[in-house]
# Entry
Amino acid sequence: MNRVWQVQDAKARFSELLETSLAEGPQIVTKRGVEAAVLVPIKQWRRLEQMAKPTLKQLLLAPEPRADILTPPRSRRHRPVTSFE
# Structure
């Protein structure tokens, strides 16, 4: 059962929020009445992370190109220009 906590209650009773999350599952934290965050047990978080990552097979069989996922980000540093005299 998801329980909703106001941010001031979550801050004041964080230990209880954590224990409730571990016992009952994800807990929603609101800020000014708007859902702002969720406290999720680490096992569930790891499972969600793993489910979100595509496998190599999924990447290769995808109908659209996914090269952006396979390409590491480039650094902004430039090599110094050397002159050949």
Observations:
- The mean pLDDT is 85.
- Helices lie at 7-12, 14-24, 42-52, 56-61, 67-70.
- The beta strands are 3-6, 27-31, 34-39.
